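Lab intake sheet, docking and co-folding queue.

SAMPLE TYPE: protein with bound small molecule
LIGAND NAME: magnesium ion
LIGAND FORMAT: SMILES
REQUESTED OUTPUT: full 3D complex as structure tokens
PRIORITY: normal
SUBMITTED BY: R.K., bench team

The fields below were copied directly from the construct record.
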Amino acid sequence: MLTRDKIAEALNDVLVPGITYSIIRMNLVQDITITEASVKIVLASTALNENAQVWIKEKISELIKKLDKAVDIEVEFIEKRPLELNSVNNIIAVMSGKGGVGKSLVTGLTAIALCRQGYTVGILDADITGPSIPKMFGISTNPQGNESGILPVLSANGIEIISINLFLPSEDEAVIWRGPLIGKAITQFWEDVLWGKLDYLLIDLPPGTADAPLTALQVLPVSGAIIVFTPQDLTTMIVKKAVKMAQQMNKPVLGVVENMSYLYVPEIRKQIEIFGKSRGDEMSKAAGAPLLAKIPIDPKLALLCDEGHIERYDSEILTSFSKALQNALRS
Ligand SMILES: Nc1ncnc2c1ncn2[C@@H]1O[C@H](COP(=O)(O)OP(=O)(O)O)[C@@H](O)[C@H]1O
Ligand SMILES: [Mg+2]
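RESULT FIELD (auto-filled):
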């Protein structure tokens, strides 16, 4: 006897051409109807060209026939916008009062930490004029898809990534767009990209508190923000500015992350605070939110980023970071 569960399990093996995730994970399955002699499956055709649709139809028939030889199988495609299909549990914006503090690096590490805990994760690189996520993850393929939807590109460990960099003919191309176009790109990255089902979508916001990060906070249904700073930020002012912006947009600040907090010297087993005393507690108080992590200056990490292998970074800090983040989301 065919059941919904059995069919759903079979559909888990039907991959969406252009991304190695199933039609279930990408949330294309809209309805399954089972009668005594037939099965009808309704699928969204989002991001699928005609060939892909034919291929999926055949694959589904083949898999269901394996479960029940006699059953009639009908597959119907309907049109849906990616926005109608995206089902993301938590959207987290990573922001900073100014550039160059390691915001992108923290976004990348957050994604890796959550991914290692078994969550499904995506990164939307909203830093249109300074995109650096693809390089860190060593990806450069053009996103697949068509007018009905764009598919994210997958990192080595399956993190879904969209960045303006992936659409440019060369990685070094400069984006010199003005505000409205930047806002439009960010909006499209949310509304026209098929993210599917995700536990977490991280947004690498443009630095500072100007128009672009504001637009992103307006457009995206962000659940909360993480604010990144370094011990070089001598006043709490810069963090307070970012907090204020989040509050104005009614987005809770989940916590703060101190990057380049110290350098660990294994020979003497000591942490040296190169950029001065840690300001973690001070900034946490100023933000009214917990200090989620103190990330050391790590030459190995910088090298892995340059080589596009950030996912090979191994540190206990990642586990405690991801747990602190989940606690912050719960409270
Ligand atoms: N904790 C760290 N240890 C080593 N290198 C770091 C660290 N944080 C950032 N970097 C390096 O500093 C540079 C800037 O970081 P990035 O994340 O791109 O900053 P932002 O996004 O804030 O502009 C990158 O080359 C990155 O590899
Ligand atoms: Mg950056």
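REVIEWER NOTE: The chain has two domains: 4-80, 84-330.
SIGN-OFF: pending second check by T.M.
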